[in-house]
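Section 3.1: Structural characterization of target chains.
Under the original work plan, the team committed to producing a structural model for every single-chain target entering the pipeline before any wet-lab resources were allocated. The record below documents one such target. The sequence was received from the expression subgroup and is listed exactly as submitted; it comprises 528 residues.
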Amino acid sequence: MSQSVVIDKEAAPAAGGKLRGHPWLTLLTVAVGVMMVALDGTVVAIANPAIQTDLKASPADIQWVTSGYLLALAVFLITAGKIGDRFGHKSTFLVGAVGFAATSAAIGFAGSIQQVIFFRVLQGLFGALLQPAALGLLRGAFPAEKLNMAIGIWGGVIGASTAAGPIVGGLLVEHVNWESVFYINVPVGVVAVLLGVLILKDVRSEKAAKSFDIPGIVLLSGAMFMLVWGIIKAPTWGWGDPATLLFLGGAVLALVAFAVWQNFAEEPLVPLALFRSVPLSAGALLMVLMAFAFFGGIFFVTFYLQNVHGMAPVDAGVHLLPMTGMMIVGAPVAGFLIGKVGPRIPIVGGMLLTTGAMLGMSTLDIHSGNGVMSLWFLLMGLGLSPVMVGATEVIVGNAPLELAGVAGGLQQAAMQVGGSLGTAVLGAVMASKVTSALPGKWAATGVPFPDGEQGEQLKQAAQLGIAPPLPEGTPQQVVTGIADAVHSSFVSGMGVAFTVASVVALAAAGLGLLTKRGANEAGPAVHI
């Protein structure tokens, strides 16, 4: 009963026309802002094949459209969270929203794949400002016992935009052009900024840092850059190549130096005492493993739908609805459930469902029907919802208010590192399987497999499920045989990638046993 009175008092100013600082309107505002990021993720996945064709991009270039964005996010997220803690999450959120919308427009105007990648990197930097600030605003606006529900509803809104992205993006790619899918972020960004100016109120702890740990920022940013860069380039260079080992080893040394420095810094960037919380540490690692399995595996799905099954972009978006639709429903339900029983059971159950979905995805072939695809997509969306909501609440809720931005940055950084690692590792697994399988499957057509550069180009195209164009007059039997050889090679590689992803998802389910609900109350705060 006393909790209801607290919420009513918080709501009372809004009833008198004072909207600024209202918890639920704050939730609405940050959800609209982060909606751009969710739209961007699904739109880019749908647009990738069109970008690849229009700009004549290689498979490596297309991976960079995703990886460049992830790299910028991973390097800057924790520092961006600290910026929010220091200067206020409201102003940080507004700068992120404006920058994200502006760089989205710039991508639409880009005339080369290099420009697309460049602006995607800038977009990642602004996205890094936006996301931890959103979580910091929620952490400050809601009492601890309501935070999980707020994050659940927030996740549901993001799920709705994620579901709309493939449909809207598919229609735009099919009937306008791929550039237009980025322009949709502009009106969303305008709405987010207007709402932010009118509604958001900075909530900062009295204990918030008053200065920046510059050496810590340099060491951590350098470590994150070397780690993600080494992961991204490893499939090209080779995991045992000296350059790969140099970057990965440098990342480890920089992280060790960062950890040592944090013990001496007057106001450390990431106080190591934060990781004395076992649930928080488990939640961060859980996000890494979840993102590894999900983003690493799902990267291939749009190519499977469009290039193997020959679907138009909008049809591919419709086929992803069971997954994204379940995330719309599942996130608020997960928030409610976590409020009742805590995060442990929903997280473990969700990762077990995700493991089953990944195993199911590994069995898809070139003739798989819509029903079986929809089943695995549905299970994946249902499984991921409680994990994303629960792990976020575990990380942010177990951090003190003065480190809410850093905790939000840590949550997002863990997801981006996991996504980069999953895309690189599973991409390498995929490429290895496709290139080894293609010549043997090609031999069944009776057509000699090309040697040299032409053969390498065929293998690269097969990694995206693209069958080569054949001269006019080629017998239909040969055309069909070559297409089947390419598509079955792609599907065999995708199957191995999803099998590896399912093992990682199962490990994440075990890690979920160490999680528990956030224990920190809001504490003293300054309202600005």
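Residues 433-497 form one domain.
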